[in-house]
Amino acid sequence: MDRTFAEKRAEELRKLIDKYSRQYYVENESEISDYEFDMLMNELKEIESRFPELKTPDSPTQRVGGSAAGQFESVVHPVPLESLQDLFSEGELIDFARKLKAAYPEITFVTEPKIDGLSVSLEYTNGVFTRGATRGDGLVGENVTANLRTIKALPLRLTEEIPYLVVRGEVFMPRESFYKLVRQQEEKGEKVFKNPRNAASGSLRQKNPAITAERELSIFVFNIQRIDGVEVRTHAEGLELLRRLGFNVIPDYVVSDDIEGSLQAIRALGERREGLPYDIDGAVVKVNQLALRQVIGSTSKFPKWAAAFKYPPEEKETVLKDIEINVGRTGILTPTAILEPVLLGGTTVSRASLHNEDYIKERNIRIGDTVIVRKAGDIIPEVVKVTKHGENSAEYVYPTECPSCGSPVVREEDEAAVRCVNPDCPAQLLRGLIHFCSKEAMDIEGLGEAVLTTFTQRGLIKGIADIYRLKAEEISVIPGMGKKSAENLLNAIEKSKQNPLSRLINALGIRNIGQRASKLLAARFKTMENLINATKEDILSIEGFGEIMAESIINFFSLPHVKELINELKDLSVNMTESEEEGKDRRFEGMTFVLTGALSKYTRDEASKIIESFGGKVSSSVSKKTSVVLAGENAGSKLTKAQELGVKVINEEEFEKMIS
Fold first, then answer.
1. Which of 15, 99, 114, 439 is catalytic?
2. Predicted local confidence at residue 70, as pLDDT
């Protein structure tokens, strides 16, 4: 085969494969068999193998290739990806539509399903997919191009060479793919995803695109963000154009002249939502005319021309078979209902939250009762109420002893939680270790729940300090580990010793002290010694710290076993200090602010210094690169320009929330 023929044949094969892929993954039909499709793909792979220079970025063979960076780079969206205002009743939706109709009688509406997945922005240049990013905060997302390429419903090349196109879509995991993934995770003893949305999000952000490809993700595209070279007048017209270009377009959308048509579409969708092959968490109603959208505009939070109607939480009746008590990291005894399995929100539910002792008593929940279970979105299912007591059922008696260690449990004044206070409780030890090694804490890769469970069961780890005493010969003999795994794990443990003090404080699991508070403590006291010796008044001097938080810290560091642990970690060379840069709050990193109008609580100079102290920049003019406009009284042309460009606008109250 000469190069000229190979080049021509490769182009033919790409067009054929794109055509048949679109038929199969988007149009749910196929002209050829799977075998014939595989033969075409193999032929293209062979040509590209013999002539590597003929391999193109949009080739179907490149759907799994390269690798995503360990830390995804940031992407500033060409057009902001706005969120929607949520409406929870038909009355609210009618009011929303009536106001628009009164102001603009010519308005029509488009109603479409709200897919429960992960929102992304996709960019195409001359018809070729060039970049894709997660929504992030709407202004800045993460570059996940390599992983998006693995989604077979996403076209790498469009049917027309549009000069520049930006579209918005929702990456989701079909229910069948989700059930398959959960079965695989259960068989491997891995932590399972709670629902398809979490599974889609976790799968799209994998470091290895090959893993993303295995997860069988799909995508629906539902909006044109920007298009050059083609005029589009309505949303419905845009969706049909996207369909012609090869996209998997949001299904079942309905165009109507009034809100009654939208309501009918919403009701019909709600009746069959359980039977859909994917999860939805509502329906979206949008103004159809794109020119009117520009006139109607947006608030600082969401567009005024669209709204999301949320279906009420689904409830089902089932039988409560048992109540299981689990001991958490901080010793709290948490009750979980063991249920007769029931299909709820597209997933089979056999466990539900009972919250605490008071919740059970107030609702008189007993083992054997028939109960109502509710699940809203990704919230953990909960028992709502009892509809019928079981035969011969008796009032449930909450444990007076810890189910893990047998120690007496206590309930502190003004608390709903019942707690085991034994610091050597095995259940608390494991959960404390899991938290200590977690990404938000010491971030020790390889020391997850399964490995830690094995190590504690074998007696290799009896406390936090033992993590830093592990030896290669102890780890490598454990089934499934081996010499290389032991080496990688020890390297990760050694690396964690250099973490800043803020991570160590968070890792210790002090009650009422989370990641944010840990950073503030480290920034204020700089060393572990200073923190341990801090008085209550010292801690209260930190803005945002109250009596409860201060007492939690004082009480924690007064415990003998905590003091012993800190000394052990210090002897094992775990870092106990925070540098100036590490402790600095960079919440506005990468953001540009513009100030306009008269501010009542700050001078312009004071507000600018606050923004810069958090890593942000202050500019004198508004542009597409502006992240936020802080508008005071009598804001003028800068506010107008920000609204025209769709830049986020906030008032002083919102600014104070951002810096609190």
1. 114
2. 43
* Chain-centroid distance, C-alpha 375: 18
Domain count, the chain: 6
Residue holding tokens 């032929």? 43
d(CA 120, CA 144) in angstroms, rounded, equals 9
Same structural domain, 338 and 395: yes
> What angle do helix axes 449-457 and 426-437 make, rounded to 10 degrees?
140
CA dist., res. 4 & res. 10, Å (int)? 10
Torsion from C-alpha of 530, 531, 537, 543, nearest 10 degrees: 110
Task: Based on the residue annotation, tell me whether 536 is a catalytic residue of this protein.
Answer: no
Gap between the Cα atoms of 305 and 416, Å rounded? 44
Torsion of CA 589, 139, 227, 58, to 10 degrees: 70
Q: How far is CA 607 from CA 70, 627, 640, 647, in A?
A: 35, 15, 21, 19
Per-residue tokens: 649: 């606008």
Q: Is 461 within 8 Å of 433 (Cβ atoms)? A: yes
- In this structure, are 248 and 377 located in the same domain? no
DSSP 72: P
Phi, psi (deg, nearest 5) at residue 231: -95, 130
| Same-domain status, 294 and 330 | no
What is the extent of the structural domain holding 515? 501-571
Whether the per-residue pLDDT at 416 is higher than 50: the answer is yes
- CATH number, residue 372: 2.40.50.140
Nearest C-alpha neighbor of 79 from the set 596, 630, 648, 635:
648
Q: How far, in Å, are 119, 586, 637, 641 from residue 628 at the CA level?
A: 21, 16, 15, 12
Same-domain status, 263 and 342: no
- Using an 8 Å Cβ cutoff, are 110 and 253 in contact? yes
Residue 352 CA neighbour count, 13 Å, CB half? 33
pLDDT in tens, 471-497: 999 998 888 788 888 999 999 999 999
Task: Summarize the confidence of residues 118-122 as an average pLDDT.
Answer: 94
Q: Report how far residue 428's alpha carbon sits from residue 426's, in angstroms, rounded to the nearest whole number.
A: 5
Q: Distance between CA 589 and CA 418 in Å, rounded?
A: 41
**At which residue do the structure tokens 């009542």 appear?**
600
How many whole angstroms separate alpha carbon 233 and alpha carbon 227? 12
3-33 per-position pLDDT tens digit: 888 888 988 888 888 887 777 555 546 677 6
Q: How many residues does the chain have?
A: 660
The closest alpha carbon to 244, from 567, 22, 93, belongs to 22
